[in-house]
From TrEMBL:
It holds the Pfam family SRPRB. GO terms for cellular component: endoplasmic reticulum membrane; Golgi apparatus. It is a single-pass membrane protein. Belongs to the SRP receptor beta subunit family. One of its GO terms (biological process) is Golgi to plasma membrane protein transport. The chain crosses the membrane at residues 20-40. PANTHER family: ADP-RIBOSYLATION FACTOR-RELATED PROTEIN 1 (PTHR45909:SF1). Mg(2+) binds at residues 59, 77. InterPro entries: P-loop_NTPase, Small_GTP-bd, Small_GTPase_ARF, Small_GTPase_ARF/SAR, SRP_receptor_beta_su. This is Signal recognition particle receptor subunit beta. It comes from the Eukaryota. The lineage of its organism: Eukaryota, Viridiplantae, Streptophyta, Embryophyta, Tracheophyta. It comes from Iris pallida (Sweet iris). It is found in: Endoplasmic reticulum membrane. GTP binds at residues 52-59, 107, 166-169.
């Protein structure tokens, strides 16, 4: 060890002083660059998006995440709710807790296009499904989810998605396994009909799954998981876990 230090010192003495300055400058620049790059990367990726059909419970979940209460009596949202806050469940934690920027995109079909504007900054997307009133909305839910899964930024950035079966406080709510299977079946049907129409004119639409195999969420390039929650009673731990996995503290 000592020999190595001596050899290094000798070698350094033999070098022209300019070389040493240049070497030192390179080390400093690289360090600054790495630190800046990390800061920029981090500051970009604390956005979590809530999307899903109207009435699925996004705004209720938004308030539950922020305030720990459901603010009884939400109405259909006409504008996205955007706020940056420390999750209510983490507010008591001492030390540094990273705030999360949560965007609640209204489910009304005319307001849905606003989703695309938020996607480039998204660290994760929570797709909220009404597990109570699921069957009549199954097709519409699958269509919206299909659109989300084939959006260019979701595919290219591999944005992780959690499908949240909400309203599980009611006994008649469907299980997450049932909802997952129904959505996979419905997306499988959509895949066949949509690729038949599109091939030529829609260029930025990505095809889903593996051709010739029934569609499953596990075939997506981004991580797609399924969870349960109740925005009304505050059972949102699975959503909080998803947020913490994707917005590092
Ligand atoms: N039982 C039950 N009802 C819920 C739950 N979450 C929301 N609701 C009810 O569902 C209705 C719609 O909730 P919102 O949060 O306004 O739905 P949204 O997804 O924001 O709807 P848009 O703003 O139209 O896109 C409200 O009457 C809520 O009280 C839940 O976990 N359980
Ligand atoms: Mg709303």
């Amino acid at each position: 060890m000592d020999e190595l230090v001596l050899e290094t010192q000798q070698w350094l003495r033999q070098q022209p002083v300019e070389n040493l300055y240049v070497g030192f400058a390179i080390v400093v620049f690289t360090t600054v660059f790495i630190v800046l790059f990390r800061c920029l990367k981090r500051s970009k990726s604390n956005t979590i998006i809530l999307a899903g059909l109207s009435s699925s419970g996004k705004t209720t979940l938004f308030y539950q995440l922020r305030d720990g209460s459901s603010h009884q009596g939400t109405v259909t949202s006409m504008e996205p709710n955007v706020d940056t806050f420390v999750l209510s469940s983490e507010a008591h934690k001492k030390g540094k807790v990273k705030p999360v920027r949560v965007v609640d995109v209204p489910g009304h079909s005319r307001l849905r296009p606003k989703l695309e504007g938020f996607l480039p900054q998204a660290a994760g997307l929570v797709f909220v499904v009404d597990a109570l009133d699921f069957l009549p909305n199954c097709r519409a839910t699958a269509e919206y989810l299909y659109d989300v899964l084939t959006m260019a930024s979701v595919v290219k950035k591999k944005i992780p998605i959690v499908i949240v079966c909400n309203k599980t406080d009611k006994v008649t709510a469907h299980s997450k396994e049932f909802i997952r299977k129904q959505l996979e079946k419905e997306i499988d049907k959509l895949r066949t009909s949509r690729t038949a129409v599109s091939t030529a004119d829609i260029t930025d639409e990505y095809t889903l799954g593996i051709p010739g195999q029934p569609f499953a969420f596990s075939q997506c390039h981004n991580k797609v998981s399924v969870a349960e929650a109740s925005g009304l009673t505050g059972e949102i731990s699975q959503i909080e876990q998803f947020i913490r996995e994707n917005v590092k503290a």
